[in-house]
Amino acid sequence: MPGLVAVVVAHDSAGVLPACLAALAREHVPALVVDNASRDGSADLAASLGARVLRLPRNEGYGRANNAGIWAAGRAEYALIVNPDVELQPGAADALLAAAEAYPDAGLFAPRIVEPDGRFFFQPRSLLAPYLTNPGGRLHPPEGDACAPFLSGACLMVRRDLFLSLGGFDPNIFLFYEDDDLCRRIADAGRALVHVHGAVALHGRGASSAPERGRVRRSRWHQAWSRSYVSRKYGLPDPTSAMLATNGIKALLAALVFRRSGWERYGGSVAGAWAARKGRSALAQEGLAESPPQETAPW
User: Fold this and answer.
1) Which residue numbers delimit the Glycosyltransferase 2-like domain (predicted)?
2) Is the full-model pTM beyond 0.85?
């Protein structure tokens, strides 16, 4: 599809990539798969299915890998950020592009995201918008196109030049809150965020990567760390004390009853919050360099 390239960040995503890429092909959207050092053959699989593949030697995290992919999608006017467990439904790409034409002052567009149970996902609030008058997160899903305070990072369409002018996703974040942070910066730049009701995408939620030992603890570490990081970034109250107290008690109780899953979950949150308090970066935790991955020549 002229002017639009899908960027799909994969990490051990071989189980879901075929359906994702097949849906993009049906929509005539060329796909660029950024492979975050998968060990399950995701990169070779994507190439065999006709996608262009950018292979990263290390898992750079969600945001940094997307930054590399969107930079590489040089001829595209728009980039469609797609999780590998997302399947665009017929007409979704056309509906997103039509919305971009109808709302030229908007900066970010997202389809109606449908979860595996048929529920329509819509984000009613965010940590990064304390000024919004919906403190309880009451859910009132739109019934048509609507401006939204935040959009899910599972599937987003953004004008490439705007994305790059804002620095892309914050490269200090390995995982979690990078989409909220991007939405906040686009809104602060005076651009609307638009929910496009006529564009539909099915989301597998949590199926982007194959299960692995330690994944839950690692995920919770980054969730806690990123919450602290973005709170400091926007001058919000430091959440680490509350996270340490709440999750520390739960981790201790899980350890006392020998419940490994609870220990990994809550212990990971404690470790991430403690690292944030001590000034350790998410990149250091992952053994990554502060500089983003090498930019490749635009597509």
Assistant:
1) 7-163
2) yes
